[in-house]
From TrEMBL:
InterPro entries: Acyl_transf_3_dom
Any Pfam family matching the protein: Acyl_transf_3
Name of protein: Acyltransferase family protein
GO CC, one annotated term: plasma membrane
Topology within the bilayer: Multi-pass membrane protein
Family assignment from sequence similarity: Belongs to the acyltransferase 3 family.
Transmembrane segments: 45-62, 83-103, 135-154, 161-178, 198-215, 222-244, 256-274, 286-305, 317-335
Subcellular location as annotated: Cell membrane
Main location: membrane
UniProt keyword list: Acyltransferase, Cell membrane, Membrane, Transferase, Transmembrane, Transmembrane helix
């Protein structure tokens, strides 16, 4: 299947945005009021990334399933790969990749880290199943679940009935928003589960991607996508302001709100437009490595976190993001050259 240059460009922009969420630039600095605004802007502005990844996954899954005329075999192939990647990185994050633990916990520090990680998993095995040994691996599990739901529905009820799948996934999304971001409001739902995980957040975006594969998207869609994305951000920041000012919910605690739906759709249309403005070869050539970068980047977030705690320089706040990105990219490219490791990084 031919790669779309603009999609690969957007993949790189999206993975940098994911890293910015996890490195939390401007979370702590001397000018707390100004930094607070920058923190929210970076944190929530980057929230297009994961919806984009889910949507693009749905798009290319549909393209492959239609080309091979085999939804279930394609489903099995995708989920099998994702599970192996989840297992691989879960193993990495169980073991002490940060050897500085020897300084903190003595010569047995690495063994203690393994023991504590295994104990944490044993205490909450359900959480481990949904997000692995490191929180960001939830994406792999949620994507697998959305593939399973969409594939089985399409197989048994045929693509012509996909409107019902859209409605089901929309219901899951609304339920997820009400039981997470809106849980403290009068319309909120109390649900003892993080609805970022599982099918609640991922399914609607995956299905949107599947539906988009049935349309001919041209470079003119970049304008429509931008308008939809902009609308999504206006709605999202409006929701965040409302929830913060009325109910005291911190703005950075929102993984997704109602407006995120439009952000995901808009950014995906922009990426799929293949407009010449997005044909940035210096970025797009790294697009195929984003899954590996996603998996490995938390190693470098952790390794550099001590420097981050001791530094409040604005240059570092931005540099931290790109340093993690560069180290993760270099590691991914290097390890992908090994035949036995390639499947975990590309």
């Amino acid at each position: 299947m031919n790669r779309i240059v603009s999609v690969d460009t957007f993949r790189v922009l999206a993975i940098i945005s994911v890293i910015s969420i996890h490195t939390s630039p401007f979370r702590e600095c001397l000018d707390t009021s100004f930094c607070g605004y920058l923190d929210v802007l970076f944190n929530q502005g980057a929230r297009f990334a994961v919806p984009f990844f889910f949507t693009i996954s749905g798009y290319f899954f549909a393209e492959k399933a239609k080309h091979d005329r085999a939804t279930i075999p394609t489903m099995i192939s995708y989920i099998k790969k994702l599970i192996f990647i989840w297992m691989f990185f879960s193993a990495i994050y169980i073991f002490p990749y940060n050897l500085l633990s020897i300084l903190d916990h003595g010569i047995l520090g690495p063994a203690k880290v393994v023991y504590w990680n295994l104990l944490r998993i044993a205490e909450n095995p359900v959480l481990f199943l949904f997000q692995g040994s490191q929180a960001h691996l939830w994406f792999l599990v949620s994507l697998s679940i959305s593939i399973l739901i969409a594939s089985l529905f399409i197989h048994f009820f045929k693509p012509k009935n996909i409107i019902y799948l859209v409605l089901i996934s929309l219901f899951l999304y609304i339920f997820g928003v009400l039981s997470k971001s809106y849980s403290e409001t009068p319309i909120g739902i109390k649900f003892n589960f993080n609805t970022r995980n599982g099918p609640f957040f991922s399914t609607i975006f995956f299905v949107i991607g599947y539906v988009l594969s049935g349309y001919k998207i041209t470079n003119r869609h970049i304008v429509r996508g931008f308008i939809i994305m902009l609308l999504g951000y206006v709605i999202s920041f409006g929701e965040i302001y409302y929830l913060s000012s009325i109910y005291g919910i911190p703005p950075i605690e929102h993984d997704y709100v109602f407006g995120t739906l439009f952000i995901g759709l808009g950014t995906s249309l922009i990426a799929l437009s293949n407009h010449s403005i997005l044909n940035i070869k210096i970025l797009s050539k790294f697009g195929k490595y984003t899954l590996g970068i996603y998996g490995i980047h938390f190693v470098f977030v952790s390794l550099l976190s001590d420097i981050d705690k001791q530094t409040s320089n604005p240059a570092w706040e931005i540099g931290y993001i790109f340093l993690v990105f560069l180290l993760s990219t270099a590691t991914t490219i290097k390890l992908s050259n090994y035949k036995k490791l390639n499947k975990f990084f590309v």
